[in-house]
Amino acid sequence: MGLSTHVLDTMHGTPAPGMRVSLYTTAGDSATLIKQFVLNQDGRNPDGLLIDHDSLKKGSYRLVFEVAAYFLARGVVLPQPNFLDRVSLDFGVANPDQHYHVPLLVSPWSYSTYRGS
Q1: pTM score, two decimals?
Q2: DSSP SS3 for 72
């Protein structure tokens, strides 16, 4: 249980190692940073869950993925200004007893997400 994420680079057909991600709690227009991390070789948080089962609370959250910086570091030539700089996903946790997995599938020009398990 808890909260997790996973990023897949759909341009290269691989996980997205090295991408920087920030996790926030949100309330209206305000956001409070909980943690920042860099994805491991599998495109996941190297420390495992972002929030463990006992600490996950009902409420609103935001994940911010540093997409442009990741693709630039991979040597992708991006137009300036680039189409996607950061991908920000706002989502709610209604039942903290369940697992919330928030994957991101991303290229320099598109992204998709869903609630995984």
Answers
A1: 0.96
A2: helix
